[in-house]
Amino acid sequence: MLRLLGLGALVALGAAALVGSAMALGLTDRGRVSSPVLVRVPPPETTSTTARFAYRADGRRPALACSLDGGRYRRCGARRQSYSGLPPGRHRFCVLVRRGRARSAPACHTWTIVPPRGGTAPNPSGPPGPPKTGDDPQPFRITGTAVGLLLPGGPAIPVDLALANPNAAPITVDDVEMRVDGAQPADCAAAIAVVRQLAARPSVPGGATRTLSGLGVPREAWPQLAMLDTGANQDGCAGATIALRFTGRATG
Fold first, then answer.
1. What is the C-alpha separation between 229 and 124, in angstroms, rounded?
2. Could you tell me what percentage of the chain is helix, strand and coil, using 3-state DSSP and rounding each to the nearest 5?
């Protein structure tokens, strides 16, 4: 018999159950140097200690610089960059274009390396914890990672969700609502629109965390964001941080 894990019993909302955490989305540095576009990145959660990135940038021979985990920007390949032997934990890669003394806003990607099964992985958004065996269902957690860059008037970009189930029994996520909850700078939030919600019903095993990409959910079913072209100068939103909030319901 299915139990309803929602409508207050299982709502991923607010600091305790969320989520959503602020996420950095690369925005164009329009009118100056255009940001590169990431076309290949590691999944949001992986056991691989090797990370490979591919990107493209305007210009015949763009000069690119890469940074790993907040380190100094150093010259890197014109189309790809890779790292090996990375330790478990959260990592952040950024790449930008240099043109003379000018440089673009960086395009960045954050991911987490977890040890192979049997190990313990640090999880900045909070692990699901040991499976609960009581009768009361426990809230699941939702976080998201944007896969791509937001550009004014540009195409929508998908958001890969990570779903953490602390219950002993598996759950099926019936729906997730994503909404924009603010930005830094604050006036950039008005230009960010949610153009699609989750269009799938993924299942998550008990005591486990799974991403949409790891579950094989096609990208066209992921939630999507877009940046509106307001007609005004939006250079101030280059490199802005957008805060997202998620709510969801599941059965199990």
1. 33
2. 5, 45, 50
What pLDDT, in 10s, does the model give residues 25-76? 434 334 467 888 888 888 888 899 999 999 988 877 788 999 998 888 899 9
DSSP state letters, 12-76: --HHHH----EEE--B--TTSPPPPEEEE---SEES-S-EEEEEE-SSSS-EEEEEETT---EE-
Global pTM exceeds 0.85: no
Residue 5 pairs in a beta bridge with 250
Supply the pLDDT for residue 32. 65
Q: Per residue in 166-200, is it b (16+ CB within 10 Å) or e — as a string?
A: bbebebebeebbbebeebeeeebbebbebebebeb
Of 109, 94, 102, nearest in space to 62 by CA? 102
What domains sit in the chain, N to C, each tagged with a CATH number?
4-251 (2.60.40.10)
Task: Measure Cα distances from 10 to 20, 169, 249 in Å.
Answer: 15, 14, 6
